[in-house]
Design goal:
Oligomer: single chain
Keywords: Plasmid
Protein name: Small Molecule Metabolism
Radius of gyration: 19 Å
InterPro entries: Methyltransf_11, SAM-dependent_MTases_sf
Number of domains: 1
Strand order of the largest sheet: 3-2-1-4-5-7-6
Shape: globular
Number of helices: 10
CATH superfamily: Vaccinia Virus protein VP39
Number of strands: 7
Mean pLDDT: 94
Helix content: 40-55%
Order of helices and strands: HEHEHEEHEHHHEHHHE
CATH topology: Rossmann fold
Distance between the termini: 27 Å
Organism: Sinorhizobium sojae CCBAU 05684
Structural class: alpha/beta
GO molecular function, one term: S-adenosylmethionine-dependent methyltransferase activity
Strand content: 15-25%
Length: about 270
Amino acid sequence: MTSSFNVHDAAGYEQLMGRWSSRLAPLFIDFAGLADGEKVLDVGCGTGSLTFALAETADLAEIAAVDYSPVFVEAAARRNSDRRIKIRQADACALPFDDGTFDRALALLVLHFVPEAGRAVAEMCRVARPGGVVAAAVWDHFGGMPGMRMMVDTVAALSEGGRQLRERYCWQPMMQPGEMKRTFVEQGLSGVEETQLMIRMDYQSFDDYWAPVAAGEGPLGKYVINLDASERARVDAAVRDAYQAGRADGPRSFANIAWACRGAVP
């Protein structure tokens, strides 16, 4: 399995998305549920937003965290000082655990970057015990992320390449209403529920908003760093204009919605 998420540097990812997934993690945990003494798997742990929130929320017996990216695994392992947490590199579509190992298998902001997302859900079901919980959350790129859509819509207005980027961005797996729920049901989970979780992304300035993308982080960053100098300058100026919206540079705040889904293993 290859991930469609582009990562160069863990610190850049933190500025782009890690700081926001840390805000989302407690809401997701409330929805997914958690109890003392459980063994929990974090699939696609990134730099550890969910992993470390789990450790702070309950007295868990074990937290296993996996990610496809060695950059993320190294960053999360470097942060870790909790003996209950074990972090390793692994494929979400071929989890290196025995059947029924965990009480809960969770994935925060991961499935939309897995080309075979249904297979990843099947693997989460396999490693969760009967009666255990499988839960996931993904951003609603099409209708629930105005700050990010502002970037891709601006780029789409400038070129055909930008329009193709927007199409890829808006129609990633698991993002449409009911799509994740249908996948959970198809994988045999029972009592499947879907809901929306909302946070706000607060930026101090245009540079705070744009710097990780300009450095090549994420899908838009991958697009931007491959532009020639003149087109890059054009994109930078257009996105800055969209961010400022006719006012002086400074703080901006955007509401952002994630779809969340959970179900129980029969």
